Amino acid sequence: MPLAGQPIWLTFPKIADSMQQFVRPLCHDVNRNCTIADAPRSKDETPWLDKRVPNGFWDYRSNRLRYLKWLGCRCGFCKAEDWYALRRHHFQKNCGGGLLRNVYQCSVQNAIAEFLPEYDWKPWLFGGTPNGYWKDRGHRMNYLGWLGQQLGIQRTADWYNVTSADSFHHHGGGLLNNEFNGCVQSVLSDCLPGYRWRAWLFNSVPQSFWKHIGNRQEYVFWLGKRLGFRKLDDWSSLTREHFFRNGGAGLFVGYYKGSTQQAIAELRPGLRDLRAPNV
């Protein structure tokens, strides 16, 4: 078991105990500029510092783990989460460019996954996800579950409060823009298809949403049901405030020109049956 405050990778077997002596002075700033100056220089323990390792050196996993442990200490990584800050330039500036290129296919995530395989890594927390990562629906589901935890989502309806800015702030910009044209509702419909999403309850509706008469009619019927309208005469009490308080401001101003009469007129003859359409 690691000691309290001890980086977990220092407990790996077959890694030199001599590294312990310089962990503390190096592990203080994740964002420090990593160079090879002032490093403990030993040909036996750190052959990469000679700029060239023996042929086949990186073929041995123990050598790769030893380098990654050394690199983590060089970069000031004290917790597993600190490794999310690792980038290609850290390898290049610390004599590990060949390792990254030839063994890990230039993927920092591949390197970290081998180093700490037990940790539940979130690919979106690195500098970027692998090509095609978001094409996998399972990956999208994993991200949405994690995002919900970060935002404190308790009920399905809480997702209505989530905006595209929330996704961008939580490293989901690639998912949102590349797969769903920046539409949060599309992401949720993909990941939670069993829930009846109402576009107007989000921060904004998709572009051109109100241009479709079916969407407008669905909204107004839904609004009437929400307001408890049961008879035709009830619709005479429909007001501007009802639209503005229930996600229909853009529809009311942009398409009905501020007129409740136009909204009601577009519903006829559907108003003869307040249960249609199915809302």
Q: Unreliable stretches, pLDDT < 50, 5 or more residues?
A: 1-41, 274-279
Assembly of the depicted chains: single chain
Distance between the termini: 57 Å
Number of domains: 3
Q: Mean of residue pLDDT?
A: 83
Major sheet attributes: none
Q: Quick one: how many beta strands?
A: 0
- β-strand percent reads under 5%
Number of helices: 13
From the spread of the alpha carbons, the general shape counts as: rod-shaped
| Helix/strand structural class | mainly alpha
Radius of gyration: 28 Å
Series of H and E elements: HHHHHHHHHHHHH
Helix content: 25-40%
Question: Would you write up a description of this structure?
Answer:
The protein has 13 helices and no strands. With 279 residues, the chain is mainly alpha-helical. The chain has 3 domains: 8-121, no CATH class; 133-197, no CATH class; 209-272.
Summarize the structure in short:
Helix content is 39%, strand content 0%.
Provide key terms for this protein.
279 residues; mainly alpha; 13 helices; 39% helix; 0% strand; disordered N terminus
Layout of helices and strands, plus pairs?
Elements: H1 23-26, H2 61-74, H3 88-93, H4 97-102, H5 108-115, H6 137-151, H7 164-169, H8 173-180, H9 184-191, H10 213-226, H11 240-244, H12 249-254, H13 260-267
Helix pairs in contact: 2-5, 6-9, 10-13
